[in-house]
Amino acid sequence: MAKLSVSYISFIELQEIVDLLGNVSGYDLSGYSKSSLKRRIQRVLDLERMDVVDLKNAITNIEGFQTYLMNEVTVNVTEMFRDPRYYAALRSDVFPYLQTYPQLKFWSAGCSTGEEVYSLAILLMESGLYDRSFIYGTDINGNVLESARKAIYPLKKIKVYSENYNASGSRGSLSDYYTAMYEAAIVNTEVRKNILFSQHNLAADYIFNEFQFISCRNVLIYFDMELQNKVFNLFYNSLAEFGFLCLGSKETLLNRDIMSNFKVINKEFNIYQKIR
Amino acid sequence: MSKADDIILIGGSAGSYNLIVAIIESLPSYFLYAIVVIIHRNPKFTTRIEDTLAARLHRPIIQAGDKTIVSKNMIYFAVPGYHLLVEPDRTFSLDNSEQIQFSRPSIDVLFETAAETYGKRCTAFLLSGANKDGTDGIRMVKKMGGNTFAQSPDEALMRTMPENAIRANQEINILTDQEIISYFRNLR
């Protein structure tokens, strides 16, 4: 079915795809930001040299295509210690409070290939909190979770991650936490020990535990306001009293109804604490 | 704040900063457009372009925030590190996906999504830069019926970006710096 020329998808056709996928699978894309979603679907059309009719056919008839499509549509750009000053803020503004708990549960929602989860684990190790902590990393995309579990990253990326780590104000060296071999680095077992990766769809799934800390960074930007509010509610209900919610640097709770249940801990990095 | 019916996009990269400042300084105190400026800059270094200009010009100049309304009489800047998109309901959205033309924000992404929503009421300017971002975006703005302008490569500090767009888009209008500035001075 390879096409010679590029086929463009319109917003009307996008809606048809969203409706079809919703009808024939458990994947609900109706709350995703339209322009961003359209670009992602267009990317799949380009990659597969398909037009919209081919795409509908594949969604309906090709086994495994629905999951493949979802995996391609979701964005998996992440880094260890991305926004280094955010991690510095966790250390100074959040961890002193967490010290007071005998046991700590963390949820990294939309964790992609795991870099953020391992960054958090390293930070907890350095603050002496990791032995009483457990981190759940979830994503809608099963493929990236597989990578997350392997914890192997190309050395080229590790170079950027090390720069981030150094900028986060940690006194050690990132190389204390991985073992390099050939062109890759594997995260050491002592960092990986208190972590579980599992699949969770923020748009459709429910509460699965109670947490002292939830981070969901650069995921909500892909959702429209309505779905964002729904997910904020999910987080609120999943947080223990005085638990923390950390969003991406351009994702804010301000101006949302649910903000009245939170207090701002760090405005620049959108760190909030549940107060009621 | 009410939604803008018309949008003007200004895309610049290396060598465009001074002209962008001159454009913003020349703007009348009230206009019916939403103006969106997108410059390539490194997210690892904080810049205070918006704050500096806002203080100097005594008017709000803000970063385009996720899910905020595209409003008239406003000057927006694209935040570093994210693609900036315009949604069909005339709000902005941000996107952290792969770089386009080695850039995030990418001028192409903003121009293409704004063109689809605003059609002929979308106007795009492409200024100095050392890469090829913006060429596809200009093509889309034109295709949807909008107006397109390029800074004259002879006046641009880095000619690659406007030159590449001109080569690929025969109908683009080529303007000198003075012509660009007076376009904005005469905005209603």
Mind explaining what this structure looks like?
By secondary structure, chain A is an alpha/beta fold. Chain A folds into 2 domains: 11-73, no CATH class; 84-274, Vaccinia Virus protein VP39 (Rossmann fold, 3-Layer(aba) Sandwich). Helix content of chain A is 42%, strand content 19%. Chain A has helices at 11-24, 34-48, 52-61, 65-73, 84-98, 115-126, 142-150, 155-167, 189-192, 225-238; strands at 104-109, 133-139, 152-154, 178-181, 184-187, 195-199, 211-216, 239-247, 262-266, 271-274. A 7-stranded mixed sheet of chain A has the order 6-2-1-7-8-10-9. A 3-stranded antiparallel sheet of chain A has the order 3-5-4. In chain A, strand 1 (104-109), helix 6 (115-126) and strand 2 form a beta-alpha-beta unit. In chain A, helix 1 (11-24) packs parallel to helix 3 (52-61). The longest helix of chain A is centred in the first third of the chain and has 15 residues, at 34-48. The mean pLDDT of chain A is 95. By secondary structure, chain B is α/β, with parallel strands linked by helices. In chain B, helix 1 (17-26) links the parallel strand 1 (6-12) and strand 2. The A-B interface holds A 11, 33-36, 39-40, 75, 77, 218, 220-222, 224-225, 228, 248, 250-252 and B 65-67, 79, 82-83, 85-89, 93-98, 109, 113, 116-117. Chain B: This is protein-glutamate methylesterase.
